[in-house]
Specification:
The protein has helices spanning 4-8, 55-58, and strands at residues 12-22, 31-36, 42-47, 62-66, 72-74, 77-79, 82-83, 85-87, 93-95. It is mostly beta strands and 109 residues long. The longest helix has 5 residues, at 4-8.
Length: 109
């Protein structure tokens, strides 16, 4: 069991995808995302979303991401945040997002 303190240590924030491009160097099919987190700035992420989303469908979408993990090298790319999703029945990632428009950088509680 995790404690509330352990959960609180994760900094989960809302961002808006500014750019989504193919990431052919990734081991598994993925996109490179550029995400605006408002007062936290713009961050980049690699996300395995190719089964359910096209790049043009991702641009402008709100996403939820962990913003306080250390950066991770994925091939030639540095992923700075972990975008959150849940698997569907086939194991494809479905993005987690607020149901309504909220301020960028808003903290998830």
């Amino acid at each position: 069991m995790a404690t509330i303190e352990e959960f609180a240590a994760l900094d989960l924030r809302v961002g808006r995808v500014l750019e989504a491009t193919d990431f052919p160097q990734a081991r598994k099919p993925a996109y490179r995302l550029t995400i605006d987190f408002g007062p936290l700035g713009v961050r980049r992420s690699s996300a395995q979303l190719t089964a359910l989303y096209r790049p043009d469908e991702l641009v402008g979408r709100l996403v939820v991401a962990v913003v306080n993990f250390p950066p991770r090298q994925i091939g030639p790319f540095i992923s700075e945040v972990l975008v959150l999703g849940a698997p569907d029945e086939a194991g494809n990632v479905v993005l987690l997002a607020p149901e309504r428009d909220v301020p960028l950088g808003g903290r998830i509680f």
